[in-house]
Amino acid sequence: MNALEMFLKYGGASLPRRQFVKGIAAGGALLGLGIAPDRLLASLTSSWQPVLRGTRFDLTLSSKRVNFTGQERLATTVNGLVPGPVLRWREGDRVILNVTNHLAEQSSIHWHGIILPMEMDGVPGISFKGIEPGETFRYTFDVHQSGTYWYHSHSGFQEQTGMYGAIIIDPRQPEPFGYDRDYVILLSDWSDEDPESIYAKLKKLSHYYNFAERTAGDLIREIKEKGVSQTWAERSMWNRMRMSDRDLSDVTGYTYTFLINGQPPASGWTGLFTKGERVRLRFINGSAMTFFDVRIPDLAMQVVAADGQNVAPVTVDEFRIGVAETYDVIVEPKDDRAYCVYAQALDRSGYARGVLTPDPSLTAEVPALDPYPILSHMDMGMAMGGMAADELEIEQLTMDDMAMTAPPASSAHAMHHSMPAGHSMGHTASGATVLKGNGAIGQGSGTKVIHGPAEFGLHVDGRAEDPQHRIDDPGVGLRNNGRRVLTYGDLRNLHPTPDTREPEREVQLHLTGNMGRYMWSINGIKYGDADPLNFKYGERLRITFVNDTMMNHPMHLHGMWSDLETGDGQHIPRKHTVIVQPGAKLSYLVSADARGDWAFHCHLLYHMLGMFRKVEVR
Amino acid sequence: MKHIMHLLFPLVIVAHSSMSLAGDMDDDPLLGKVMLDQLELRTGDSDATVNWSLDGWLGRDLDKLWLKTKGDYERGSIGEANLQALYSRAIAPFWDLQVGWRGDLRPEPVRNWLAVGVKGLAPYFFDLDAALFLGESGRSQARIQAEYELLLTQRLILVPELELTLSGKDDPETATGSGLSTVEAGLRIRYEIRREFAPYLGVSWTRLYGQTADYAVEEGDETDQFQIVVGIRCWL
């Protein structure tokens, strides 16, 4: 029998010398506290993360009372914890995870981003039957990868109510970067409301949680600034399309409390460092619905891995992390002071907060929330040519109007042809290179965007007329904010592209929705009405997403890597979850090397019921 | 009773329409909403009235059973009251077709109508409900309601509203004349303490036209009423 250690450790960092063992026995596991006694109290309230190591793991799913807001609520937990324990595996090991369901309802655990046999993937109705109350399911598979991942329930809305945790897989080979400390930073969103009630409210009033809508005051201010006729011109398209440029997040800080490692902003998570150390932060977005914009004021972050896979290091001030994505960054605090780990929700309705500090008694100033982001015509999938994003919002009305009146089938290319030569080539709104889509791997798709007949049905309230590859666009709310913001264009695999075959075919998938009725779909067809997608075993194919909605969708393909085309065919980064920006298109390559049935969906919890496909690899 | 039976059929359709599962999840659960859009005290030159406008629906994304009732209560008795029971089917991304029965229960005699309407969100964010009503003895009516929500702040919302009623035929027993019979305009400002609960203040102006106005004059009623309203709006 393999030894199972359970460490109650100070953030999972390698153990400091002064070691204090409290010696709490829990389920035969040893609880060790790698911190000095005088820091015990502070750490117990804010900073410890239980870590399970080894190859055999016993996990129990149960209801537990929790209190994140001042109100007691029932959470669905793994081993009684929110988040669940950090699971620490080793590349090359065969792991066994016995998951026992003590909930009153069916449950499941999905190992997010882990390449494994279909039966072990943990999606009820696709990979297995689910775990009934009282039952134990034994997951067992070989670990072929390393890096930062996570796990979560794939049943009902249990993920919203606390069933998620981090996975760290230590590599066999030494890491290509050094570090002295290692912390998981698991971001999540907690609501005291039942998720069923949240979903019902969205169906009854889709803007229920949006308290940042456009008001009469905005209108008056714009008329003062721009005059009546220009304001009218700018507003009219949104008004005609019945779209709101303030429609960023369906569920907001109105009901959510944002957590770092289970700590609300009031208490905050704390991680220790000693001046001069290199600290590895493993960011995981385990939220149900929230994108975060993460930064540590006065501390540059070197991004070394995305979705668990090493990338060529890139230094940034800020990055956006979509639901289910992970980023590993290294920071080197040079001063004896506290730093604020600041993760504001994309819609600026709140933030999660932590502190990196040499001393728990120090605090760091919490930045103010950024201004509320406003969607541009570009986010609506309108033509952009070579203008800067903010110019576009104001000055491209004639272009937008042209795009509106152009026949849908020809609009994708008509714009470029009608532009002066200097504008037709090369650049997107953020100064990014337009991917030519010449078919070469890494370059994205040049295929014409075609809206299928089902996209003109009841499930779809709008279509992107001229979606662009916006691989270098940091996204709404992060453009030109004065900080160096990570974009997908910055992501290059540290290693050569694993599969250099050209794609044999391309599948264009349109992300569609009807916001008012709160219905989400792919190609205008919701999961319940859709046929499975067929991948041929062994083929290399290109998936191109066209986002016809006004929202960011984090698209997650189970079982196979998403080789994201960021412009460098030699170093294509591998991801498991990919943000498709509103009104944009984006491509990745897939090597269909995993037989069986796999889930493929938007990872926003209240979107995925409709915006979902089963993939059959035969 | 006959009308109740007619309602059961769409109800069955609504309750049993597609159960769709993503993994093990139902993307389109059976939901219901009850919306007391207006419950208000109206005061002006004539006697004060209590007016209500209450809607409810039960169903799924695309198919719903709708109930709508409107009326007023004056000096201990109901002045006007109507009830509609409609099967509602999405016909466009922003529009529902609503078909069913409308009963004008007060004033008596009771009038029954076949109702056919469209309800939805028009460009520029106007909420529209336009319906045609076909009654017994060749009677017909058309009613158009339009509403706009102007956000002064995130919770303080100004709502102008306009309702026009046209009749195809004189109906002396209910004091309704042919042609444009009634125009009702309102301006209400509500404060959403929660999304589901908002007190409001406002004004309401009702004017009767043509033969309808003549009938009102004969009965000694006002043809032009300006009233102050105070009420609550709530939903579940």
Automatic annotation (TrEMBL), chain A:
NCBIfam families, alphabetically? copper_res_A, TAT_signal_seq
Q: Where in the cell is it found?
A: Cell envelope
Q: Name one GO cellular component term.
A: periplasmic space
Q: How does it assemble?
A: Heterodimer of a large and a small subunit.
InterPro entries documented for this protein: Cu-oxidase-like_N (IPR011707), Cu-oxidase_2nd (IPR001117), Cu-oxidase_C (IPR011706), Cu-oxidase_fam (IPR045087), Cu-R_CopA (IPR006376), Cu_oxidase_CS (IPR033138), Cupredoxin (IPR008972), CuRO_2_CopA (IPR034282)
Which PROSITE patterns does this chain map to?
MULTICOPPER_OXIDASE1, TAT
Identify this protein by name.
Copper-resistance protein, CopA family
Any one GO molecular-function label of the UniProt entry: iron-sulfur cluster binding
Stored SUPFAM superfamilies:
Cupredoxins (SSF49503)
Matching entries from Pfam families are given as: Cu-oxidase, Cu-oxidase_2, Cu-oxidase_3
Q: Which residues form the Plastocyanin-like domain?
A: 63-173, 243-354, 502-616
Keywords on record: Copper, Iron, Iron-sulfur, Metal-binding, Oxidoreductase
UniProtKB/TrEMBL annotation, chain B:
Q: Name one GO molecular function term.
A: copper ion binding
Record-level GO BP terms: intracellular copper ion homeostasis
Keyword check for Metal-binding: no
Q: Which domain of life is it from?
A: Bacteria
Q: Where is the signal peptide?
A: 1-22
> Which is a Gene Ontology cellular component entry for this protein?
cell outer membrane
The name of this protein is Copper resistance protein B
- Organism of provenance: Desulfopila aestuarii DSM 18488
